[in-house]
Amino acid sequence: MGGDRLLTSWIEVKSESDFPIQNIPFGIFKSPGGKVGAATRIGDTVINLYALARHGFLDGLEIEAEVFHRHTLNDFIALGKPACRALRNRIAEIFGNDNSALREHPELQSEIMISHEMVQMLMPVQVGDYTDFYSSIEHATNVGIMFRDPANALLPNWKHIPVGYHGRSSSIVVSGTGIHRPKGQTKADNAELPEFGPSKQVDFELEMAFITGKKTELGQSVSTANAEDHIFGMVLFNDLSARDIQKWEYVPLGPFLAKNFGSVVSPWIITMDALEPFRVPGPGQEPEVLPYLRFEGDHNFDIQLDVFIQPENQPQQRVCHSNYKYMYWNLAQQLAHQTVNGCNINVGDMYGSGTISGPTPDSFGSMLEIAWKGTKPVKMADGSERKFINDNDTIIMRGYCMRDNLRIGFGEVKTKILPATQ
Ligand code: MN
After folding, report:
1. Which of 144, 176, 192, 285 could form a disulfide with 153 if both were Cys (CB 3.0 to 4.6 A apart)?
2. Is 397 helix (H, G, I), strand (E, B) or coil?
3. Cα–Cα distances in Å, from 172 out to 32, 39, 318, 352?
4. Residue 153 C-alpha to ligand 1 middle, in angstroms?
């Protein structure tokens, strides 16, 4: 599947657009009049799926129009992949160049189509549970070198277990949401006692997250072979972190308040079907993993990822160019591991990849690594330096796949770091 690669739309799509008619992502939008509902997007045009359904364009798909008249996509996603595929095929048909059913009815277009600049995008799903993995070998190695032992950078379990922790879903927010610098406990290496105050080391983590679309019952496990059947799609994910708080709190139970003050997602969920043409093999896994983590086929994806920092009233400056394909543990292994003990999953759960670092310093996915623990500050265009993120800096992440002139993108996830609250 993945649609007709040569199909073009009667909606204008610029060549650098992330949203050609082969993409057909899903999101939740709010109209200028305050109406909220499900949408897809072609080029710069947002398509109101409830309006599309009410005007009969989705007749015969056996999807109730009401499922698009909600504040989240959860009920739509729960209909399953066959329903989603049928809908994506129908959308490609309606907006394909040779179809005049809507193209020649401007009075309907004004109800169904709206410029992306006119709408506000909201959280696409209600996130039930959130897991964050730690699946980039380059990132885990860098952190191990900086904080533990260069000779034994990876802990003994790392190549056997897709290491992860259960995070918090209440603070996962959509792109455009500003996040206040967190306050908390930190302790300098030479200090006897901890102190309390605003974090001095706010960082981004370049991640992607997958969203599950099919629930399991407690006690049930998902195999690597069936994992993608349970995955609806993916988003960009900026997992903000306060490194000084993290360093003091994380032993013995792992990340806590350093990681739950805000994680930001891109608003459009890109389906696994749209990503199909961009499958690539992952890195070799040595030593061989346990049987429940073995897999057939390719489960990595060639997704180019960029991170920019934009100081207040300054141009944005790229600080990282990485790729999702570097992931050591793939999403099928992550979901198989998550459920191997019988832990149940629900529709709308979110699974962060962990920071996605590549092999070279310009591909590191966090300021911690880029500025190497503060020893290699990044020079900004205005002459200032960054070891971490300053107040009023905006962090922007973008991601897209490109092959044979087909570009499938994620748009962007953007967030401004606001001063700590009083
Ligand atoms: Mn993370």
Report:
1. 144
2. strand
3. 24, 20, 24, 11
4. 18
Q: How many angstroms does the Cα of residue 255 sit away from the middle of ligand 1?
A: 9
Q: Where do you find CATH 2.30.30.230 in the chain? A: 27-122
Other CB atoms within a 10 A radius of the CB of residue 321 amount to: 15
The segment(s) of the chain belonging to CATH 3.90.850.10 are 130-418
Please confirm, yes or no, whether 105 is among the known catalytic residues: no
Superfamily of domain 27-122: Fumarylacetoacetase, N-terminal domain (2.30.30.230)
Pick from 81, 101, 310, 330: nearest CA to 210: 330
What CA–CA distance (Å, rounded) separates 289 from 299? 15
What pTM was computed for the model? 0.98
Measure 226 CA to ligand 1 centroid, in angstroms: 25
Q: Tell me which residue of 42, 104, 38 sits closest to 74, measured CA to CA.
A: 38
Q: How far is the CA of 99 from the centre of ligand 1 (A)?
A: 44
CATH topology of domain 130-418: Fumarylacetoacetate hydrolase; domain 2 (3.90.850)
Distance 208 CA to ligand 1 centre (A): 10
Q: What is the pLDDT along the chain (422 residues), one digit of tens a residue?
A: 446 888 999 999 999 999 999 999 999 999 999 999 999 999 999 999 999 999 999 999 999 999 999 999 999 999 999 999 999 999 999 999 999 999 999 999 999 999 999 999 999 999 999 999 999 999 999 999 998 899 999 999 999 999 999 999 999 999 999 999 999 999 999 999 999 999 999 999 999 999 999 999 999 999 999 999 999 999 999 999 999 999 999 999 999 999 999 999 999 999 999 999 999 999 999 999 999 999 999 999 999 999 999 999 999 999 999 999 999 999 999 999 999 999 999 999 999 999 999 999 999 999 999 999 999 999 999 999 999 999 999 999 999 999 999 999 999 999 999 999 98
